[in-house]
Structure formats: C-alpha cells, structure tokens
Amino acid sequence: MRPGALVRPLIQTTRGARPCDGHQPAPSRWFLPRMMRCRMSDRPSSVRGHLATLGAYGFLAQEPVILAALTSGDPILLIGRSGTGKTFLLNSISEALGLEHRHYNASLISFDDLVGFPYPDEAKATVRFLETPATVWGAESVLIDEISRCKPEHQNRLFSLVHERKVQGLALTKLRYRWAAMNPCSTDQSNGEDYLGAEPLDPALADRFAVILEVGDWDDLSDSDRQRVANPAGEGVSSNDGGRLKAALTRWQADFAAQLDHCPAPLVHYVCAVTTALRDGGIRLSPRRARLITRTLLAATLVERFTADTLSSPASERLFRAVLDASLPQRAWGATPDADKVAAAHRLAWDATMLTGTAQWLHHFHLQRPLDRKARLLLDACPDPDTGTLAVEQLLANESPARAAAFALAAYPAAVAGDLPIGAEAVNDLGRLAQPVLTVDGEIGWQERWGQQDSTHPELAAYAPVLKRLGAARRERAQQLLYFCLTHKLAVDAPREFEQEFHRCVQVFGKGRTA
C-alpha cells in the first residue's frame, strides 16, 4: 500500500498557506508523503532554488522547466512512482502562490464532485450548478491526481478542463493552472512494482500537457537531498516562502506576455528544426506540440535570464535540451522515445539554429527530409561549391540506398552540365550511383509458394499500378529506378510516394538547368 493511501481524500481544497499548531497536521498535507516535509528553519541556507525553499527536493535540474510552465500557465503532467513527491510538489506550489486550489483523485471522482449538483434556474430556461467548497468553479489551480486511472467518460470531461479551462462548455474564468500526476502506465513498469489500473494516457489528452516530466526516485537524489527528504521535522507545515516565488512569477509572466508576440527567431527556428528531425526519426510531434515547446522555451529563457548574447551558450543548449525532453508526450502512454534519436535531433536542430555561415546551411540542408526540398536548397542557397560537395556526399552516405539512388539519378544530368554548385568529386559520386540505375542489369529471383500458381512477384505487383498511370518519359525514369531497386533488393515501402518524390526532385533540377 502506498504511503497515505488510507487518509488521502477524494477532493482537497486549500487556500494559501495554513498555520499549524505543531500537533495536528494541516488538512492540505494529510495526503502527502511524510518524508518530503521539513521546517523552513531546518533548511540550510545553501539550498538553492525556489522548489527546495518549499521543501521539495530533487527537482533542481528540472526546476527551470517547471517554472517555465508556471510562467506560461500551460498544463503540467508529472509521472513517477509512488512516494516520489509529485503531489507534494504541485500542492506546495499552490500554497506558496496563495491559490484557491482543488486536488481531485481522478480514480474516484464523479462528475458531480467536479461541477456540483445541477438544478434549473427560476425561469427553468437554463441549468445551474449548486456549488460547494470542492467544486471547480472558483478554483485558480487544479491538480488531477492519478489521471491515468480515470474512467474513460471522465477523461473526456477532463479534456476540456485541461485544454480549454472549460467544463460543460462553461469557462472557468478564475482557473490559471492545470496540473496532473500519474504513476508509470502499465505498459512501462519494471523492478517488480506493478501499478494496477494505471493505464496509458490517451494520446490526445497527453498532447495537451505542455510539460511532461518524469519524477526521479531515491536513487536520483543527491546525498544532501536524501538527508533533507528523510528528515521528518515540520510535517504538516504549509509551504510559505515569504512570497518569493509569487514575486518572481509576476515578473516572468509580465516579460512572457510582452515577448509572446515577438518571440525570438532562434527559438522558433530550433523548434521547427527539432520537430522535423524527430518526425524523420519516427518520433511524431504534432503542430500543436511545436507551439507548446516554443512557449515553454520562451518562458524558460526568461526564467534563466538568457539574452540574445548568451542564447547560444552551452548553458542555453542544456536548457533547450531539458525543455525538449520535458515536451515529449509519448512517455504518458508508455512509449518512451529512443534517447539516441532525441539526442541526434536536438544536436542537428541546435547546430542548424545557432551555427552561422556554411555550417548552418549544411545543417538546414540535412534537416530537409523530402529530396526535392534538398534539391531546391542546393540550387538556390548553397554558399559555395565546397559546401555543396560536402552536402551531396553526406546525403549519399546517410540516406537509404534507394533514396540515394533516386537523388543521384535526378541530379546527375544537371551535375554533368555544370548547373549545380558542387565540385568534381561530388559529380563523380553522383555518377557512380546514377550509372547503374541508367543501365539496369540483373536478375530477379523469386519462387512461388507451395500450392500457389500464376502468382506475381510481390514488388512487381506493387510497382505495376504506379507505372501504369505515368506518362511516357516519367514512366521510363521511374521504371529504371524501381527496377534498379528490385534487382538490388532495395526495399521501397511506399512505391507511389517514392516515385512522386523522385519526380518532384527531377522537376527541381530540370528547372534549375533551364533557369
């Protein structure tokens, strides 16, 4: 049984910091892990950070991202094992800010708990709700605990609360912060700790949370934080930092509102680049997610006081990576993205954004996934032949053999004619790949399965409908490319889309020759 399981209330409402007589814990602390609280006077002065001042330890590395979400007002989702301080942290923040706060247990809550009991008005024209101290209408902050255990019908109702600050289509005019917490879902558990009923969060709902943070366990705490966490002194004391966090947020929020309509270009460029790079690596981020990342980045740079002069510093890069890691919604449904792919996407996007001159162009070239966009960038914006040569050679080495062959076949005529900004070495490399495509020579080996008669080679069966609809010249080019892939056993998963991309690439290079 988790700590506090017997005394955790279904709904908790608090307002600001509450006094404590030293014997009876304040009601707002009954459900918190006891190990996470110690008195302000017991906290060493060397402890840095707003969250440590509230008694929430182990969050120093994640603090800039959390403070950024508080600055932007965008939703936060914390994922972690039981007793790691998820609920404690969020309720402590609400107390320090003096918010009218609601804490709901999503696994037990009914809709009446959220909105109150409906009744018709005197004219019987509309329905009103009988409010209680626990209903959501007057709340300034809301914590939906155990959100992954929520019944599907309630999850749909919470969707508009998280996304739009609305319930039943009615605006919650006072609501500023929407937070949630959950254990690791049932598809992402290990070490013998099984959270029954913790299901993957619906991807559409998860995508509404701007910040999704994994909360560390005991092994992730420093020795000094372990000492502070294990200290039972001051249990039940409400969080009160003397208004320090509230004053800081007021400044950050004013700066955020002032800059939101004039977001620094490097932030937007980085987000566009990293979203593209991740999607190319099979990690999809939605267009909505791209905007949320930019908002979080803007807020985080304000919190950390980065300026235009320091935005390209190593510290700034670490902040960008931290924001990216906290913006991947896949972990909410148990599909943690490949760390190597995330690191590679970040590096590519960072270099493409922060480097200057030819290095920046080269990274932009590789960020373009479609071959025709690479072709257009090579023709229109390549700074010099040496850079163009390097770009072509890296493309031919890093793309799949089928895509490299398609690019070579499309580009080679323009390269031979001297119409591309590349050197002789790149022309030769394009020729080495293009020549075997132009003179396809090979055998197709294939054997029918036992009991089958008059069946067709599977790749030929897939290519035939694609080639059938093409004009003569386009069909001849496509036939050369697809038959080359066939004889060299190069997989083409979507032949129609592959041929269309190849044709657009041919058109770009063809127009470049006649321009």
Strand and helix order = EHHEHEHEEEHEEEHEHHHHHHHHHHHHHH
Shape: elongated
What is the percent of helical residues?
40-55%
The secondary structure category is alpha/beta
Number of helices: 20
Q: In terms of per-residue confidence, which ranges show pLDDT below 50 for 5 or more consecutive residues?
A: 1-11, 17-47
**Content of β-strand:** 5-15%
Strand order of the largest sheet: 1-3-6-9-2-10
Sheet with most strands: 6 strands, mixed
The chain-level mean pLDDT equals 84
How many β-strands, per DSSP?
10
- Whole-angstrom Rg: 29 Å
Distance between the termini: 73 Å
Furnish the topology, listing elements before pairings.
Layout: E1 11-15, H1 50-53, H2 63-72, E2 76-79, H3 86-96, E3 100-105, H4 111-115, E4 117-120, E5 127-130, E6 141-145, H5 152-164, E7 166-167, E8 170-171, E9 177-182, H6 203-206, E10 211-214, H7 223-230, H8 244-259, H9 265-280, H10 287-303, H11 314-325, H12 339-354, H13 357-367, H14 371-381, H15 385-398, H16 401-416, H17 424-438, H18 458-468, H19 472-487, H20 495-514
Parallel strand pairs: 2-9, 2-10, 3-6, 6-9
Antiparallel strand pairs: 1-3, 4-5, 7-8
Helix pairs in contact: 2-8, 2-10, 8-10, 9-10, 9-12, 10-11, 11-12, 12-13, 13-15, 14-20, 15-16, 15-17, 16-17, 16-20, 18-19
